[in-house]
Amino acid sequence: MASIPSCTTAASHSCLTSNSFSSPSCFVKLNAQFLGTRNRQGRVRPFGLGPSKCWFKFCIDAKVAGIYASQSGGEFDKDNVEQMGVEKQVLKAGTGPKLVAGQNVTVHCTGYGKDGDLNQKFWSTKDPGQQPFTFKIGQGNVIKGWDEGVLGMQVGEVARLRCSPDYAYGASGFPAWGIQPNSVLDFEIEVLRLE
């Protein structure tokens, strides 16, 4: 898969510095990488990927620093997530205020990707002897995929996050859990409460 060109600055793209996210030609970016355009239905259409390859992307409005998301159906694309950082699939909607950086959140989580197989569980807070996990969002106390992936979630929401290696355990992996170096991982996260 071809590399996605980087954005220069948010200010150079008028749609990122205004409230014009409804514009069909609006540039969308994630982690300073150019993803594609939003169509009139509000879906992100990345360049180089068909509609079945990209179904949920975060985008950032540089003016208001709001969190937005667009869905376009389909499945995860491993090549795409290796370049993008984190993809999110909402499995069950939540209610109440959306999570923001600085809040303490308690979650149930199950991780998949043991021995490079995204169908193999390596850990769960629901396993015997385990308990829900609490962390402060955006403080670097958890992997980057969790810190960024839970933003905008609500209490009761269940989502599946697919994290690229640099948003998970990177080149070191996590041998104790069977996570190989440079592994793409899936996490199913349920938000139980926030403080």
TrEMBL record:
Enzyme Commission designation: 5.2.1.8
InterPro entries cross-referenced by the UniProt entry: FKBP-type_PPIase, PPIase_dom_sf, PPIase_FKBP_dom
Domain of life: Eukaryota
Reactions listed under catalytic activity: [protein]-peptidylproline (omega=180) = [protein]-peptidylproline (omega=0)
Keywords noted in UniProt: Cytoplasm, Disulfide bond, Isomerase, Rotamase
UniProt keyword Disulfide bond, yes or no: yes
Subcellular location: Cytoplasm
Keyword Cell inner membrane found: no
UniProt GO MF annotations: peptidyl-prolyl cis-trans isomerase activity
Occurrences of domain PPIase FKBP-type (ranges): 102-195
Top EC class of this enzyme: isomerase
This protein's GO CC annotations: cytoplasm
Family (UniProt): Belongs to the FKBP-type PPIase family.
Cross-referenced PANTHER family: FK506-BINDING PROTEIN 59-RELATED, PEPTIDYL-PROLYL CIS-TRANS ISOMERASE
Name listed for the protein in its UniProt record: peptidylprolyl isomerase
